[in-house]
UniProtKB/TrEMBL annotation, chain A:
Organism for this UniProt entry: Halohasta litorea
Organism lineage string: Archaea, Methanobacteriati, Methanobacteriota, Stenosarchaea group, Halobacteria
SUPFAM superfamilies listed in its UniProt record: P-loop containing nucleoside triphosphate hydrolases
Entries under PROSITE patterns matching the protein: ABC_TRANSPORTER_1 (PS00211), ABC_TRANSPORTER_2 (PS50893)
Protein name: Phosphonate ABC transporter ATP-binding protein
ABC transporter domain boundaries: 2-246
From TrEMBL, chain B:
Gene from which this protein is expressed: phnE
Principal location listed in the UniProt entry: membrane
Every ABC transmembrane type-1 domain range: 73-256
Protein name stated in the entry: Phosphonate ABC transporter, permease protein PhnE
Keyword field contains Transmembrane: yes
Organism: Halohasta litorea
Top-level taxonomy: Archaea, Methanobacteriati, Methanobacteriota, Stenosarchaea group, Halobacteria
Length: 271, 264
């Protein structure tokens, strides 16, 4: 179970990206984090495995506090968290198999990593996952030969082979077309149920989020403004997340008023 | 400020003045440098005659002499290969220190940058002179001179390749819980491999040329017989050596171009 309590992140620039964010994730639930650009979605998910260092609050995974771990303890904790990235972040010049097996690097000595000497059970598991994500036969292709959807499936396989306690997905569909996005979301949902682990997904396609997530967390300006099941995400909740409480009509009215003002101003200046 | 909508100038008056004076200053420097050289124009006038004379004494090349220089030619090749290999070995750690994203701290970064500029700023002939004094004349001094001179060049280019890698894959390997060394060999090394091979072969190509002249200061290779034959005015042998050097350089250039094309 992942517990995030009063998490804070203030960047060196003084930008306060996360303001006392708290939530829990457990079981095998799919949690979608939605919110406008710049709301702090990426900062939040990257703070969990400390790719971004939080500046306050607490994160515990199965009761273990993550925020105060030293370097080697942090590495061990990271082995339990699989991460999936927007731009896939594969090592492009390595083969699909090497990329998938890189999920096991946390358990391997550097010398074995150098010689690509992975234990046989990792290799057989890699093949198993490869067919699970529908990538049979491409294991010796270089990652840069694959299509976007295929690359993201390699990215997912790399996270799954870690045998993580939780999956973190940072905008996994943003670089993909709608059809491939849906496939990737289906795959993530299947994995959550089959491996019985929770998945946190940053996503900006609200429809995809509602379709796949059990629960939705709405982030606006660094604060959690909605936290509830997907069917409770009504119009009012969306206004709160995306427009600071204003409804779409109000917002459109405001912007059309602004436009009128501008055209007035132009007319005045013209003579 | 109101301006004529039909007029547009890339530079305003002040910028034009500055540009004019920069150009003027450049010309002044060139003229001053030329005058400071005190060129003897008499030599320039007789140059074509002298050149024709030299060539008539060189031609035809001494074909029989070519068998006696094969050893020296091979030595040149060996110096370039060993020197480059040694340079790469020393340049790899320097490159990781001199790349802003892999260096441990500011001090190591400056140290890396210092090694890069220091080895580059001293010419190969001067390094050869130093190593001839330390290790005596011969191929060893040549290998070391080539190696040390090449550290800066190779380390600088490899460091630039390291700085240009995709940070995303490094981040992904970090996120699975890999150690920094694992990240280096699994996330960074595959990304710089093409640059590494292309830099190595390019430098080897340069080093073949450098190895032909370090013999002038006693550091082995084809430069040693070349200097001897020049001293004895044995011009037909000199032409043989020059042709041999040309052939060697052409071959090394072709090989290095082929290898660089192959890794892209």
């Amino acid at each position: 179970m992942l517990e995030v309590t009063e998490l804070e992140k203030t960047y060196d620039t003084g930008d306060r990206a996360l303001k006392s964010v708290s939530f829990e994730v457990s079981g095998n639930e799919i949690v979608a984090i939605i919110g406008p650009s710049g709301a702090g979605k990426s900062t939040l998910i990257r703070s969990i495995n400390r790719l971004t260092e939080p500046t306050g609050g607490s994160i515990t995974l199965d009761g273990k506090e993550l925020t105060d771990l030293g370097q080697s303890e942090l590495r061990n904790a990271r082995r339990d968290m699989g991460m999936i990235f927007q731009e896939f972040n594969l090592v492009e010049r390595l083969t699909v198999m090497e990329n998938i097996l890189s999920g096991r690097l946390g358990y391997l000595s550097t010398w074995d990593a150098f010689r690509r000497n992975f234990p046989p059970e990792d290799i057989s598991r890699a093949r198993e996952i490869l067919s699970r994500v529908n990538l049979d036969g491409v294991e010796n292709n270089r990652a840069d030969e694959l299509s976007g959807g295929q690359r993201q499936r390699v990215g997912i396989a790399r996270a799954v082979i870690q045998r993580p306690k939780i999956l973190l997905a940072d905008e996994p569909t943003s670089a993909l077309d709608p059809e491939t996005s849906r496939e990737v979301m289906n795959l993530l949902t299947d994995i959550a149920h089959e491996d019985d682990i929770p998945v946190i997904i940053n996503i900006h396609e609200v429809d995809l989020a509602i379709e796949h997530a059990d629960r939705i967390i709405g982030l606006s300006n660094g604060e959690v403004v909605f936290n509830g099941s997907a069917d409770k995400l009504d119009e009012e909740a969306r206004d709160e997340i995306y427009r600071g409480g204003e409804s779409l009509e109000q917002k459109q009215m405001a912007s059309s008023e602004a436009e009128t003002n501008i055209s007035d101003a132009v007319v005045e200046r013209g003579d | 400020m109101s301006s004529n909508p039909e007029s547009w100038e890339r530079f305003d008056r002040r910028e034009r003045l500055i540009r004019f004076f920069m150009l003027f200053a450049g010309l002044v420097i060139i003229v001053a440098a030329w005058r400071a050289m005190e060129v003897n124009y008499g030599y320039a006038i007789t140059a074509p005659v002298e050149l024709a004379d030299l060539f008539s004494r060189m031609y035809p090349p001494d074909v029989g002499y070519s068998t006696t220089i094969t050893g020296a030619l091979l030595e040149t090749l060996n110096i370039s290969i060993l020197g480059t290999a040694l340079a790469i070995l020393m340049a790899i750690p320097v490159a990781f220190l001199g790349a802003s994203n892999t260096t441990p701290n500011k001090a190591t970064y400056l140290f890396g940058k210092f090694i890069i500029s220091f080895t580059r700023s001293v010419n190969v002939i001067i390094w050869a002179l130093i190593f001839v004094v330390v290790f005596g004349p011969g191929a060893l001094a040549g290998v070391l001179a080539i190696a040390v001179r090449s550290i800066g060049f190779t380390a600088k280019l490899i460091a630039e390749a390291i700085e240009e890698i995709d940070k995303g894959s490094v981040e992904a390997v970090t996120a699975v819980g890999a150690s920094q060394l694992d990240v280096l060999i699994y996330g960074i090394v595959p990304q710089i491999k093409p640059a590494f091979i292309s830099v190595t072969t390019l430098r080897w190509d340069i080093n073949v040329r450098a190895s032909t002249i370090i013999g002038f200061v006693g550091a082995g290779g084809i430069g040693v017989p070349l200097q001897t034959e020049i001293n004895y005015f044995n011009w037909e042998a000199v032409l043989t050596i020059l042709i041999a050097i040309l052939g060697l350089v052409l071959v090394s250039e072709a090989v290095s171009a082929y290898l660089r094309k192959k890794v892209m």
